[in-house]
């Protein structure tokens, strides 16, 4: 039981860590950590393929909703299957932070 308890502390600490700092810094860090840049480009506007979308400057609510819909399968158009896999490691709070950051880019 003691071991179980101490194991439970680790995820809580990780969540607390990712919740710290400004949304903007977190969004940028998440964009790197979750490998978003590998398809959408480091500046979020130089996608690796011309048919992949530029994200910089996109409306935050729109971007957030697209991520949610691609993850849930509600949006399954075009190339969205390419992106669905990566969203398995991104929760809604992280999507929101990335979306807010994207919207601040020029
Ligand atoms: C394997 C490549 C790939 C990765 C990795 C990837 N995406 Fe995408 N993403 C795409 C593609 C392709 C689309 C367009 C899907 C379509 O054609 O409908 C897309 C669409 C989007 C959209 C919707 C854009 C719009 O204008 O509707 C957003 C927002 C987005 N991605 C954000 C992210 C974020 C944030 C991450 C990291 C968590 C990420 N993507 C990781 C390939 C990727």
Give a quick precis of the structure.
With 106 residues, this protein is mostly helical. The protein contains six helices and no strands.
Question: What does the secondary structure layout of this molecule look like, with pairings?
Answer:
Blueprint: H1 2-19, H2 23-33, H3 37-40, H4 60-72, H5 80-84, H6 92-104
Give an overview of the whole structure:
The protein is mainly α. It has a single domain, classed as Cytochrome c-like domain (Cytochrome Bc1 Complex, Chain D, domain 2), CATH 1.10.760. Helices cover 60% and strands 0% of the residues. The protein is built from six helices and no strands. α2 crosses α6 and α4 packs antiparallel against α6. The protein is globular and about 30 Å long. Heme C binds next to α3, α4 and α5.
Defining traits:
106 residues, 6 helices, mainly alpha, Cytochrome Bc1 Complex, Chain D, domain 2, binds heme C
């Amino acid at each position: 039981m003691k071991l179980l308890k101490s194991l439970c502390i680790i995820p809580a600490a990780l969540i607390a860590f990712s919740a710290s700092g400004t949304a903007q810094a977190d969004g940028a860090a998440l964009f790197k950590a979750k490998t978003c840049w590998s398809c959408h480009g480091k500046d979020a506007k130089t996608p690796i393929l011309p048919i992949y979308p530029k994200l910089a400057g996109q409306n935050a609510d729109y971007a957030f909703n697209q991520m949610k819909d691609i993850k849930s399968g509600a949006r399954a158009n075009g190339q969205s299957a390419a992106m669905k896999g990566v969203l398995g490691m991104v929760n809604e709070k992280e999507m929101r932070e990335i979306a807010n950051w994207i919207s601040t880019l020029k």
